[in-house]
């Protein structure tokens, strides 16, 4: 955790982004259409043949973000490129969490029926 303390601002920003991903997921967790079932596999005839509950779909992205954030805080030096400082890991990771937040917001837009499509 020594490296976490040296780059605290970036780690705090990343923690905020992870929390925002969870907040969006919990905001829309029970609002997916179709009784909360989402197709996860399609057969050779292009028809869905495997389903997963909406709550599970909504929580995959936030849980992945939390695990990544935890690993980066626990051992950022293992994820740094050779010759690079582990202090930059948290700053670069912000982009990953911003993408995950954008994906979660798109899921929320769909779940709330705000999609213009």
Automatic annotation (TrEMBL):
The chain crosses the membrane at residues 12-30, 50-72, 93-113. The keyword Transmembrane applies. It comes from the Bacteria. Keywords: Membrane, Transmembrane, Transmembrane helix. This is DUF1648 domain-containing protein. It comes from Massilia norwichensis. The lineage of its organism: Bacteria, Pseudomonadati, Pseudomonadota, Betaproteobacteria, Burkholderiales.
